[in-house]
């Protein structure tokens, strides 16, 4: 079986669904990619850890402009001008829910996983590295800008 | 202890006994553990049918709240009565600033005691003395926003005084108008719209600051110029009146009024954000920090299918409030509703999927009100 291929649809479905319902935007998928660690981030990066039957990291990368718009939409249109704490909590929640839903979908098949609280990194030139894991890249195009999902997950040994 | 079918388990329930891997003596999850979403999935996946749940254990937070609630309710009632007694005869005697200050200080102390519990109480709406309970509730909300904005104690007191007196002018209008069922005539509406002017006039006779006067006179002015009585815009409206603009509308929306449907807290919040050009963005931001996206008292649907009520919000974490889960996945009322703090790491995969639509909200609310 190919774990990476199995991961694509749950993440796409979760991201499309949450972007539509909470982010108030339609999204489409770009060209999938597979890159070896480290992967280059964007201005705003939210990293979510996965533990349980699957182990690893999922990182959501986007520009600050996109992050602010996404946060404002998630906060029911609250006027937001900069990436303040409120906005970061929205990006954090977005990453948490998409990852939680995606691995939850896998759970209905064979994996039961938990996610750890997201960490949001802000700044240019961020790179994300993981030990001996390739990243599966899912680029998304939305009405509020591009969002890149980088997934590095493997089955746990136990 | 009570045996519960696995399909009826909800996150936050506490295990009374160890759960073993089937046909072994290997413990899967130990007794006294509060169940997370993953644990429930794991239990289901193993084909276990029933588990023992501890329903006697009283959460220490619950105990503390149980003691505090009657005190807060009593203080709240007392505040409403005091406002009524002091404000009502204001047409005959001038208001004493000192007395109102004392009232505002009492409210300030209550807010410091437990603001979340207090916000829960402001949803306990009385029907007969709307004007006075509205003044107290608006004062509580306004003080909370002042705190987020970093106001000093003295400023918070002034804000409280201003909020307690903001609708004073309503007393100059015939109660038949503001208690009227159904819609108002053009003449009646025009009269209602004069209450800020009447209020300002009464206060001028007392020893109140310019700010308190401005709040009474300007709390219906809107940033886009759509308000009344003068149609002032943006910075022409004093900042404190801009705060009141938000809290006054919010409380009025969630209150029972004879001339229109009562809104859910969620609807009231959405109403404010839909018309955001009317309000100061700084105030709206502070309001969201206090009330969160899912305001206290909202009924919400969890991604796992349970229905819960928001009981506390945590600062800077508007998506992850503390909840009490009242209905399981099958819509059955729980005897001992567990309390779940979404801000805790173990509940990371649990989240609020949506707030209930107004109809559903009412249906579940009435089921909760039965006891």
Number of helices of chain B: 14
How far from one another are the termini of chain B?
23 Å
CATH topology of chain A: Chemotaxis protein chec
The count of domains of chain B is: 3
Tell me how many strands of chain B there are. 9
Radius of gyration of chain A: 15 Å
Layout of strands and helices, then pairs:
The complex is a heterodimer of chains A (158) and B (371).
Chain A (H helix, E strand, L loop, with lengths): L2 H19 L5 E3 L3 E4 L2 E2 L3 E9 L1 E9 L1 H11 L10 H25 L3 E3 L3 E4 L4 E2 L5 E9 L2 E11 L3
Antiparallel strand pairs in A: 1-9, 2-9, 3-8, 4-5, 4-6, 4-7, 5-10, 9-10
Chain B lengths: L1 E4 L13 E2 L6 E3 L7 H9 L4 E4 L6 H28 L9 H17 L1 H7 L8 H19 L4 H12 L10 H4 L7 H7 L2 H10 L5 H9 L20 H16 L10 H10 L6 H11 L7 E4 L4 E8 L2 E11 L11 E3 L10 E4 L2 H12 L2
Antiparallel strand pairs in B: 1-4, 2-3, 5-6, 5-9, 6-7, 7-8
Helix pairs in contact in B: 2-3, 2-5, 3-5, 3-6, 5-6, 5-11, 5-13, 6-10, 9-10, 10-11, 11-12
Describe the overall structure.
- The complex is a heterodimer of chains A (158) and B (371).
- Chain A has 158 residues and is an alpha+beta fold.
- Chain A is built from 3 helices and 10 strands.
- Chain A has a single domain (3-155), classed as CheC-like (Chemotaxis protein chec), CATH 3.40.1550.10.
- In chain A, helix 1 (3-21) crosses helix 3 and helix 2 crosses helix 3 (85-109).
- The longest helix of chain A is centred in the middle third of the chain and has 25 residues, at 85-109.
- The two termini of chain A are 18 Å apart.
- The model of chain A has no long low-confidence stretch (mean pLDDT 90).
- By secondary structure, chain B is α+β, with helices and mostly antiparallel strands.
- The longest helix of chain B has 28 residues, at 60-87.
- In chain B, a hairpin with a 6-residue loop joins strand 2 (19-20) and strand 3 (27-29).
- The radius of gyration of chain B is 24 Å and the shape is elongated.
- Helix content of chain B is 46%, strand content 12%.
- Chain B folds into 3 domains: 2-53, Molybdopterin biosynthesis moea protein, domain 2 (Alpha-Beta Complex); 60-291, Hypothetical protein af1432; 299-369, no CATH class.
- The chains are: A alpha+beta (158), B alpha+beta (371).
């Amino acid at each position: 079986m190919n774990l990476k291929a199995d991961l694509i649809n749950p993440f796409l479905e979760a991201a499309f669904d949450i972007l539509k319902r909470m982010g108030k935007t339609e999204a489409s998928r770009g060209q999938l990619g597979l890159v070896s660690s480290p992967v280059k981030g964007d201005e705003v990066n939210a990293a979510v850890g996965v533990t349980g039957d699957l182990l690893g990291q999922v990182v959501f990368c986007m520009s600050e402009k996109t992050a602010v718009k996404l946060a404002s939409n998630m906060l029911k249109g609250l006027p937001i001008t900069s990436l303040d704490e409120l906005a970061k909590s929205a990006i954090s929640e977005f990453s948490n829910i998409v990852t939680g839903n995606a691995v939850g979908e896998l759970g209905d098949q064979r994996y039961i996983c938990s996610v750890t609280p997201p960490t949001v990194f802000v700044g240019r030139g961020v790179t994300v590295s993981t030990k001996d894991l390739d990243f599966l890249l899912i680029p998304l195009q939305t009405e509020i800008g591009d969002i890149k999902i980088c997934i590095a997950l493997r089955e746990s040994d136990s | 202890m009570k045996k519960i079918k696995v399909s009826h388990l909800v996150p936050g329930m506490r295990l009374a006994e160890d759960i073993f891997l089937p046909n072994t003596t290997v413990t899967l999850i130990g007794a006294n553990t509060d169940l997370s979403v993953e644990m429930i999935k794991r239990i289901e996946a193993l084909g276990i049918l029933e588990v023992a749940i501890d329903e006697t254990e009283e959460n220490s937070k619950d105990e503390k709240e149980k003691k505090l609630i009657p005190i807060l309710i009593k203080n709240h009632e007392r505040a409403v009565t005091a406002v009524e007694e002091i404000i009502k005869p204001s047409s005959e005697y001038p208001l004493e600033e000192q007395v109102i200050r004392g009232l505002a200080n009492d409210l300030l102390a209550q807010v410091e005691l437990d603001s979340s519990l207090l916000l829960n109480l402001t949803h306990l709406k009385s029907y007969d003395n709307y004007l006075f309970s509205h003044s107290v509730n608006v004062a509580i909300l306004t003080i909370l926003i002042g705190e987020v904005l970093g106001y000093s104690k003295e400023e918070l007191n002034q804000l409280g005084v201003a909020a307690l007196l903001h609708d004073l002018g309503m007393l100059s209008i015939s109660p038949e108008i503001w208690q009227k069922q159904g819609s108002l005539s053009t003449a009646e509406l025009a009269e209602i719209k004069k209450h800020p002017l009447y209020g300002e006039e009464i206060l001028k006779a007392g020893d109140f600051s310019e700010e308190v006067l401005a709040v009474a006179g300007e709390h219906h002015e809107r940033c886009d110029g759509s308000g009344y009585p003068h149609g002032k815009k943006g910075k022409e409206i004093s900042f404190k009146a801009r705060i009141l603009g938000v809290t006054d509308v919010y409380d009025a929306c969630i209150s029972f009024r004879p001339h229109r449907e009562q809104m859910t807290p969620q609807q009231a919040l959405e109403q404010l954000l839909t018309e955001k050009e009317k309000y100061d963005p700084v105030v709206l931001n502070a309001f969201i920090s206090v009330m969160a996206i899912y305001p206290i008292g909202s009924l919400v649907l969890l991604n796992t299918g349970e229905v819960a009520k928001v009981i506390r919000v945590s600062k800077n974490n508007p998506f992850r409030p503390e909840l009490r889960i009242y209905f399981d996945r099958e819509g059955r009322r729980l005897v001992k509703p567990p309390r779940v703090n979404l801000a805790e790491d173990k509940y990371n995969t649990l989240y609020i999927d949506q707030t209930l639509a107004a109809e559903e909200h009412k249906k579940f609310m009435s089921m909760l009100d039965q006891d």
